[in-house]
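Session log. Operator J.P. requested a structure for one protein chain; no other inputs attached. Running the standard single-chain path with token output.
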Amino acid sequence: MSFNVEALMSTDVVSVTPTDTLATLRKIFAKKGFHHLPVLDGDKLVGIISDRDAQRYTSPFVGTRLERAEDRALLKKTVADIMTRDMVTVDRATSVDTASVLLLENVISCLPVVNAEGGIDGIVTWKDILKFHVYGVDPKSSEQP
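Structure written below.
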């Protein structure tokens, strides 16, 4: 049986805007436990940012006794400064197999699921797809291994 990413994608999507700051990102990542946030300008997807992107631009001294003014200043960087603009996206009808290949060939860990208007419908991650392939779980089933 073949499934589309619609069956696997998370629709509980938290997004940020290009003008949000690195400080805001850090709070969202810490509070929500997500690893990827779509960047929306109005209703349009314009980028994606990962917790690793945020970590790359954050000084390891932030929040410690060694924190300096320049470390705090980095927290004012905007999402637009560090987001990935050249994204690989899919739509709801994309097959899970195609999504798997896209993740592998592009060395990425998530695929924003977009609609015809360029808005975000959901996100499918490598972990969602791996669970599907390894456990063979019908994503619509309430049973989990």
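Operator note: The mean pLDDT is 87.
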